[in-house]
C-alpha cells in the first residue's frame, strides 16, 4: 500500500509518501498519534477502517439479523439510507460513525459488528442449505479459530444471535459472551473488525495493546495480519513493547503535533542500533547514557542515582557500548539527542582514554565499577550511618587495601603487562604491504621492535610508586581483581554490615536519600568518571 502521510514539520508543502504493509506510529501521550490516524482516514475514507482507542467494549447478549447490505453499511459507515445507499459511505460517515468528532468520539459499534457477523452466518447457512456445495467457512468461524488459538483455555459456541463461551475442559460451565472479561471481549472485537472489512483496506488500530495481556499481543496480531494479507495495517501506540512485536513494520516516531502539522520521523531500517532500544531512547527524549552490565548490575544501580537526568540503557559489554554510542551519534541530525557511554577503565592506558573520550565514551578512573563502592566518600558515609567513626574506618579500609595490593603486586603487574603486550601485538598486525612476503617481513619487524622489558619496567615502576606513596586512588584505578577488593578491605566487618551485598545495598540506599551526604557521594562518583582527558 502506498499513501501520503500527514503534513510533516519542516516540509509544509511536501507531504512524505510511503509504501508499507504494516506501519507502527509510536509516541508519548499528546504527540498527535490519534490525529495522525484520523488524518489518513479522511484522505483515504473509501478504503480505510479505523478502530478508536476510545471504544465501547459492551458486547450485546443477543442480536437480530438484518439484510447484509444494511448491516455492512451500518458497521463500516455507521448508518444506512434507503433512498441513497451510498450517502453514509461518501458523506455521512463522519457524523454517523464518529459523531462529528473524529479524534475524541467513543466508538460504539460492537452491536453493529455482531449484527453483521450473525447476518452473514445466517445467509451463508441458508445458501448452503438451498444450494449445497462445500460447507461455508463464515467470518464467525474465522473469529472462533483465531480466538481459541490465542485463548486455548476457552471455547466459543455459536447460537442464533448469541455467542457463548466456556472453559475448554467443561462445556457445561458456559456463559453469554457479554460476560467475557475485557481481554476476551476486546480480542473477539479486534478479530471481528479486521475480518469484516472489505478487501485491500487500510486498517488503523489505535492503542491495539489496550486490555490485552502482553503475553498474548504478538500472537494475536500475527494471526490477524496473516488472516488479511490483502490489507495494510497502521498501529498507533505509546507501548514500546508492542511496537517491537511488529518487527517488519515501518516505524514512525511521533514527537509532537500543532495546528495540523506533525513532528515525526521515519526510523531508518538500516540503523545498526536494535529497534527496540532505539524506540525506547527516542521516546524518553532525555540525553542517553549507554552503560555496561544489565538492569541489576552495580553499574546501573550507581549511575541511576548519579545521572538521574539521563536515560540509562545497559548494553552488556564495553564493545557494545562503544559501537552503539558511535552509531547513535552518527544519526544525531535525525534525533538530536545527546548520547554518551560509560565503560570500566580495566587496564586501559591514557592514550586509550583520550581516544575514547573523543568519541563520547566516558571512562571510569577506577579499574571497574565495583571499586566505586570503596571511594573514600562512600566508605565514610556508610560508617557514619552505622554509628562508626568515619575517619578511623576509612583509614583501616585504606591500610587493608594497601596490604592486599602489596600481596598481589607481582600478579597485577603481569596482568597489566599482558594487556599492554596484547595492544602492541594488535598494532603489529596493522601492516601496510600488499603481498604476503612483504607482510610477514613487516609484521616480524614490528613485533621485534616491541620493547617488552621497557613495557614491563614502566608498569612495575608505576605500581611500586603507587604502593610506596600509599596512593589509595591509584590502587582503585589499577587494581582489577573482581569481587576481591571489598572482602579484603574488611569494610563490612568494620561497619557491622553482614556481607558485600548488604554493603552495596547500603551505598545505594544512602545515594537515594537526596540529602547533603548523598549529594557528596554522587559527586565523588561523578569525579571518578573521565570525560575530557588530555
Number of helical elements: 23
Number of strands: 16
* Inertia-based shape: elongated
Percent range for β-strand residues = 5-15%
How many strands, what sense, and barrel or not for the largest sheet?
6 strands, mixed
Oligomer, anyone? single chain
Rounded average pLDDT = 91
What attributes does this structure have?
534 residues; alpha/beta; 6-stranded mixed β-sheet; 5-stranded mixed β-sheet; 23 helices; 16 strands
List the helices and strands and how they pair.
Layout (H helix, E strand, L loop, with lengths): L1 E3 L12 E3 L2 E5 L6 H11 L4 E4 L16 H10 L9 H12 L11 H22 L7 H12 L3 E6 L2 E6 L7 E2 L5 H15 L5 E5 L7 H14 L4 E6 L2 H6 L4 E9 L2 E6 L8 H10 L3 E4 L6 H9 L4 E4 L3 H13 L1 H4 L3 E5 L6 H8 L3 E4 L11 H10 L4 H18 L1 H20 L7 H13 L3 H17 L3 H7 L6 H5 L1 H4 L5 H12 L4 H12 L1 E2 L4
Parallel strand pairs: 3-9, 3-10, 4-8, 8-9, 12-13, 12-14, 14-15
Antiparallel strand pairs: 1-2, 5-6, 6-7, 10-11, 15-16
Helix pairs in contact: 2-3, 2-4, 4-6, 5-6, 14-15, 14-23, 16-17, 16-18
Amino acid at each position: 500500500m502506498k499513501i501520503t502521510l500527514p503534513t510533516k514539520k519542516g516540509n509544509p508543502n511536501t507531504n512524505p509518501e510511503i509504501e508499507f504493509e504494516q506501519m507502527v506510529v509510536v509516541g508519548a501521550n499528546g504527540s498527535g498519534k490519534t490525529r495522525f490516524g484520523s488524518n489518513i482516514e479522511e484522505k483515504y475514507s473509501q478504503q480505510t477502517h479505523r478502530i478508536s482507542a476510545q471504544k465501547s467494549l459492551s458486547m450485546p447478549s443477543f442480536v437480530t439479523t438484518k439484510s447484509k447490505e444494511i448491516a455492512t453499511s451500518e458497521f463500516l459507515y455507521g448508518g444506512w439510507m434507503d433512498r441513497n445507499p451510498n450517502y453514509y459511505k461518501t458523506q455521512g460517515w463522519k457524523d454517523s460513525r464518529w459523531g462529528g468528532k473524529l479524534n475524541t468520539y467513543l466508538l460504539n459499534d460492537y452491536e453493529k459488528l455482531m449484527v453483521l457477523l450473525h447476518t452473514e452466518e445466517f445467509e451463508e447457512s441458508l445458501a448452503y442449505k438451498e444450494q449445497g456445495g462445500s460447507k461455508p467457512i463464515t467470518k464467525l468461524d474465522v473469529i472462533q479459530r483465531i480466538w481459541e488459538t490465542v485463548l486455548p483455555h476457552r471455547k466459543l459456541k455459536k447460537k442464533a444471535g448469541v455467542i457463548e463461551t466456556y472453559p475448554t475442559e467443561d462445556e457445561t460451565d458456559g456463559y453469554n459472551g457479554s460476560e467475557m472479561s475485557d481481554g476476551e471481549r476486546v480480542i473477539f472485537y479486534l478479530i471481528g473488525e479486521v475480518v469484516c472489512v472489505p478487501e485491500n483496506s487500510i486498517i488503523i488500530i489505535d492503542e491495539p495493546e489496550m486490555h490485552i495481556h502482553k503475553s498474548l499481543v504478538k500472537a494475536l496480531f500475527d494471526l490477524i495480519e496473516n488472516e488479511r494479507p490483502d490489507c495494510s495495517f497502521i498501529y498507533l501506540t505509546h507501548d514500546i513493547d508492542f511496537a517491537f512485536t511488529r518487527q517488519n513494520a515501518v516505524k514512525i516516531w511521533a514527537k509532537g503535533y500543532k495546528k495540523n502539522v506533525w513532528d515525526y520521523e521515519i526510523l531508518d531500517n538500516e540503523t545498526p542500533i536494535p529497534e527496540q532500544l532505539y524506540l525506547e531512547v527516542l521516546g524518553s527524549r532525555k540525553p542517553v547514557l549507554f552503560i555496561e552490565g544489565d538492569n541489576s548490575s552495580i553499574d546501573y544501580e550507581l549511575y541511576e542515582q548519579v545521572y538521574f537526568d539521563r536515560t540509562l540503557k545497559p548494553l552488556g559489554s564495553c564493545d557494545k557500548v562503544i559501537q552503539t554510542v558511535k552509531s547513535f551519534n552518527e544519526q544525531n541530525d535525525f534525533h538530536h539527542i545527546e548520547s554518551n557511554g560509560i565503560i570500566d577503565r580495566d587496564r586501559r592506558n591514557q592514550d586509550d582514554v583520550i581516544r575514547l573520550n573523543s568519541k563520547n565514551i566516558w571512562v571510569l578512573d577506577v579499574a571497574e565499577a565495583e571499586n566505586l563502592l570503596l571511594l573514600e566518600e562512600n566508605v565514610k558515609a556508610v560508617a557514619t550511618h552505622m554509628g562508626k567513626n568515619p575517619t578511623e574506618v576509612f583509614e583501616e579500609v585504606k591500610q587493608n587495601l594497601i596490604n592486599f595490593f602489596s600481596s598481589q603486586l607481582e600478579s597485577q603487574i603481569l596482568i597489566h603487562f599482558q594487556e599492554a603486550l596484547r595492544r602492541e601485538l594488535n598494532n603489529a598486525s596493522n601492516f601496510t604491504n600488499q603481498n604476503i612476503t612483504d607482510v610477514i617481513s613487516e609484521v616480524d619487524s614490528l613485533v621485534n621492535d616491541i620493547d617488552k622489558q621497557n613495557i614491563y619496567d614502566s608498569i612495575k615502576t608505576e605500581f611500586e610508586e603507587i604502593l610506596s606513596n600509599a596512593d589509595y586512588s591509584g590502587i582503585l584505578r589499577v587494581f582489577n581483581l573482581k569481587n576481591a577488593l571489598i572482602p579484603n578491605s574488611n569494610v563490612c566487618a568494620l561497619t557491622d554490615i553482614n556481607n558485600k551485598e548488604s554493603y552495596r545495598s547500603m551505598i545505594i540506599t544512602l545515594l537515594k536519600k537526596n540529602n547533603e551526604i548523598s549529594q557528596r557521594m554522587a559527586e565523588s562518583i561523578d569525579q571518578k568518571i573521565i570525560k575530557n582527558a588530555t
